[in-house]
Amino acid sequence: MNRCKQKLFYADKEKNGFNVRFFMPELPEVETVRRDLVPVLVGKKITKITVLHAAPVKDGVKKFIKSLQFKTIHHIDRIGKLLVVDVGEGVFLLIHLKMTGQLIYRKGATTVEGGHSLSGFKDVPMPSTFTWVVWHLNDGSDLYFNDMRKFGYLKIVDAQEKDRIVARYGAEPLTKKFTLDYFLKILEKRNTPIKSLLLNQTLVAGIGNIYADEICFDAGIFPGIRVAILTMKQKKKLFQSIGSILKKAIKYKGTTFKNYLSPHGKKGNFLDFLQVYQREGKKCLRCDGGIIAQKRIGGRNSRYCPLCQKVLH
DNA sequence: CTTCTTGTTACTGA
DNA sequence: ATCAGTAACAAGAA
Question: CATH homologous superfamily of domain A3-167?
């Protein structure tokens, strides 16, 4: 999608009253956040914590502040869409961004283009209307947690609970654990629509609605197809598509509709590569004549090309 | 007012 | 015991 078409896409959507402004931080977005934060946070000491709204803080603000103050950030990890911050002494901070969460890192500057705002991208002072927590670091920099919808959460856990939570997730794609054998095995003895399987975090970690649709399109497979009738060739193609789509999305630093920003205030660029997500009613970019359709599959709105993602029986 | 958005979990029914 | 499917929840937009 070139720049001109992209503009039209936004205009059409707004005219039709669809809400295109929300993003979903899925694996590629959360991984982008992690990669941006590691070089600027690891080794830094948290000198002060400001909690502007207690709602996203699980298990009490007191415990939250006490657990993090004067700790040093040792390591930032990710499982699926969950960030795991190791602050040493067996204490871990879990951060889930859910739909509209942002982590913004600022040193010196007090505004960020595209911070949460009801009126679109523009310069927003930090902390913004939707900043709930600020971590002040020993070098004068700050990390802001913003979340318009307040669906995201911040949770302090010990090593045992962290391990228990991490263990609930299935294999992480793009790691050695996610092999073709593993994928074939989780497809066995199941008969759910393939899209529901891709969204099941206990089987594959990190895929959400955007990338589930994009992966199915890339594989040329109807997202509602039951896994039991997939051919071996289709299963292998799906496995390959999971890797290639997620890798490409990370390369372009994720997808931004409106609210997703990396910690340095940058939008993701994968929007330009979306083939089906939020393209319903538009021409298929792969085949001649297909019009992207929309259907509810596994309780989720799904987009696909009815011509090149055939329903096989 | 209703309906839609998402990731996650609790629950139901098979 | 295991799996499929759905409701519920958070908060805001239209």
Answer: MutM-like, N-terminal (3.20.190.10)
Q: What is the pLDDT along chain A (313 residues), one digit of tens a residue?
A: 222 222 222 223 332 222 233 456 889 889 988 998 999 999 999 999 999 988 889 888 899 999 999 999 999 999 999 999 999 999 999 999 888 888 888 887 665 555 444 333 445 678 888 889 999 999 999 999 988 888 889 999 999 889 988 988 999 999 999 999 999 999 988 899 999 999 999 999 999 888 999 999 999 999 999 999 999 999 999 999 999 999 999 988 776 655 556 677 666 667 667 777 777 888 898 988 888 988 889 888 888 999 989 765 4
Residue closest to sugar C1' of C10 by CA: A151
**Among this protein's residues, is A35 annotated catalytic?**
no
CA dihedral (A17, A269, A280, A282) in degrees, to 10, reads 110
Compute the distance between CA of residue A52 and CA of residue A102 in angstroms, rounded to an integer. 15
CATH code of the region A180-304: 1.10.8.50
Q: How far apart are CA A21 and CA A95, in angstroms?
A: 22
Q: Which nucleotide is nearest to A98 (CA to C1')?
A: B7
Q: Give the global pTM.
A: 0.87
